[in-house]
Amino acid sequence: MENYSGETLSWEMIDGCIELALHREPCNEIGLKTLEELEGFVAAHNELKEESHTLIIHSRMKAGFCAGADLRELYLGASQIGFSNAEPQVRDFLNRIHAVMNAIDSSPLTTIAAVHGVTFGGGFELALTCDLIFADKMTRFCFPELRLGLIPGFGGIPRLNRDLGNAVVRDILLTGRSINATKAQNVGLVSQLAAENESLKLARFTAAQVKKFDRKTSAAAKRFLKPIPYGELNKEIDIFCHLFTEPAVEAGLRKFVESTDAQPYLP
């Protein structure tokens, strides 16, 4: 399936480049529907990769790339059955989203996250699956999960640890502070900075360059450069599920859901 248009995302093949566009209001929160459509993309990717050289993931939402997990859906689902009983459902969701993230991470294609604005939590984790992150100057990255009594659960810690020094990882994780695109480039997180609203254009230009290279050579280089930390990813799921049943999580999620702030995920 070269082209698809869904409720939360769409993709199309353009001259050997797959463009995956996120477009769920207000800022591409990842819930069950998005997960379902991402799983559909992974299934399509297994065929599309044979005739592609690059994958670009971007957002059509003005607010940003992705604000992370759909915390309202998570809170309501856990409340219905009781947080102390929600661990199996949470683990199933995490196993499914990890399968999606791992498939993108291990794709033989050169993958580019073209990000802007809010790139938080699960959105940050999605960007980290890509080989390259191109960010416009207004982008902000953040792991706000500790405010909810949790750690990132979509693979963020092992992937950030793979790509950056420990001091940077600890600062981002333990303080919950957001960092701007310039600092992200300075610490090695962002490959290229773009002018406002220009990250997708830059990614498309880069895809045209990537097309010139032999695909088997690029894939071999990627496998060598970018090992997937499967063991650490599995540990992250276990820790997240253990923490989820703690009272601090229910209180943190309730506070988020009851917030009257238009963007409660912002620091």
Please tag this protein with its features.
267 residues; alpha/beta; 2-enoyl-CoA Hydratase, Chain A, domain 1; 7-stranded mixed beta sheet; 4-stranded mixed beta sheet; 11 helices; 48% helix; globular
Please explain how this structure is put together:
Helices cover 48% and strands 17% of the residues. With 267 residues, it is of the alpha/beta class. The chain has a single domain, classed as 2-enoyl-CoA Hydratase, Chain A, domain 1. The strands form 2 sheets. Strands 1-2-3-4-6-8-11 form a 7-stranded mixed β-sheet, sandwiched between helices. The protein has a 4-stranded mixed β-sheet with strand order 5-7-9-10. Helix 1 (32-48) packs parallel to helix 3 (87-105). The chain is globular, with a radius of gyration of 18 Å. The chain starts with a strand and ends in a 9-residue tail after the last helix.
Summarize this entry quickly:
This protein has 267 residues and is an alpha/beta fold.
Distance between the termini: 39 Å
The 3D shape can be described as globular
The profile of the biggest β sheet is: 7 strands, mixed
What is the domain total for the residues? 1
As laid out across the biggest beta sheet, the strand order is: 1-2-3-4-6-8-11
Structural class, from helix and strand content?
A: alpha/beta
Unreliable segments of 5+ consecutive residues = none
Lay out the secondary structure.
Layout: E1 4-5, E2 9-14, E3 17-22, H1 32-48, E4 54-59, E5 64-66, H2 71-81, H3 87-105, E6 110-115, E7 118-120, H4 121-128, E8 132-136, E9 140-142, H5 156-163, H6 166-175, E10 179-180, H7 181-186, E11 192-194, H8 199-210, H9 215-225, H10 230-244, H11 247-258
Parallel strand pairs: 3-4, 4-6, 5-7, 6-8, 7-9, 8-11
Antiparallel strand pairs: 1-2, 2-3, 9-10
Helix pairs in contact: 1-3, 2-11, 3-10, 4-5
